[in-house]
Amino acid sequence: MYPILFKIGPLTIHTYGVMLAAAFFLALALAVKQARKEGIAPERIVDLGLYLLVAAIVGSRLLFVLTDLQYYIENPLKIFMIWEGGLVFYGGLILGIPVGIYYIKRQKLPLWKVGDIIAPSISIAQVVGRLGCFSAGCCYGKPTTLPWGVTFRDPDSLARLNIPLHPTQLYESLGTFLIFLFLILMRKKKSFDGQLIWLYVLSYSVLRFLIEFFRGDEIRGMFFEGPLSTSQAIGIPLAIISTYMLFRLKRAK
Question: In Å, how far from its chain's centre is CA 128?
Fold first, then answer.
C-alpha cells in the first residue's frame, strides 16, 4: 500500500527493503536466543544466518528471473533491481538448503538440531517479509468481490490498480504466523531432531499450494505449459520429501 517509505533528495527508501531487513534481524535474534538454550554457539548461528541471507536473495531472485527469462535477457540490469519486487521464496529455499548444510557440516554442528532452531525463524521472517510484499504491491491476488478485497491506488505499487484484489500477501503472512505458533508449540513436544524443520517444509508447502490459487500476478506459470504454477509444482515434491523425512527420522529415533 505504501511502496515508498520516504525520500531524502535522490535517495529513495522502499518499504519492501526495510521490511526484509526487519524480517532478517527478527529471525536471527530468535534463532540466537534458542541456540543459547540448546548449547549451540550463538556466533555460529549469526554466521549461518548471513550465509542463508545471501543464498536466499540470490536463489529467490534467480528463480524469479527464470520464470520470465526472455524479459531479463532483454533487460539485464533489471535483474539487480530487487526493490521492485520479484523474489520467489522457493528459489531461496532451494539454494539455502545446500548452503546451510555445507556451513553446518563444516562447523561440525548437529544438522537436524540446528534445522529445528532456525525453522520458527524462517516462518516469522516470512510473516514480516510478506507485509513488505503487501506494501510494495507485489505477489498480489486475483480480482475479488469479497468484502476484504484490497484496492491498490499508489502509482508506484506493483499491483493492479483501482480494482479490489485478494490480499494474498496478507493470507500468507497470517498463514506463516500460524505455522510459527505451531512450531513453537511443537518445540516443547518434539520427539526427535529434525522434526520442526520438516514440519515447517510440509506445512508451508501445503499453505503455499493453496494460496497460489488466489494469486493474480502475471508471472505464475511453469517453464512449460501446465495447470500448476511454478511454486505449486515445487511444493508437491517438497511435501512428499518432508513427509518421508518425518517418518524416516522418527523411525530412526
Answer: 10
Residue 74: other Cβ atoms inside 10 A? 8
Query: Is the distance from CB of 195 to CB of 186 less than 8 angstroms?
Result: yes
For 86, counting Cβ atoms within 10 Å of its Cβ (0-12 exposed, 13-18 middle, 19+ buried), the class is: buried
137: left (phi over 0), alpha (psi -120 to 50) or beta: left
- pLDDT tens track for 112-171: 999 999 999 999 999 999 999 999 998 899 999 999 999 999 998 888 999 999 999 999
Instruction: Enter the DSSP assignment of 39.
Output: T
Assign residue 29 a region (left: φ > 0; alpha: ψ between -120 and 50; beta: otherwise): alpha
Q: What's the CA gap between 159 and 142, in Å, rounded?
A: 10
Is residue 19 classed as helix, strand or coil in its secondary structure? Answer: helix
Pair 100, 54: CB distance under 8 Å: no
Contact 4, 132 (CB under 8 A): no
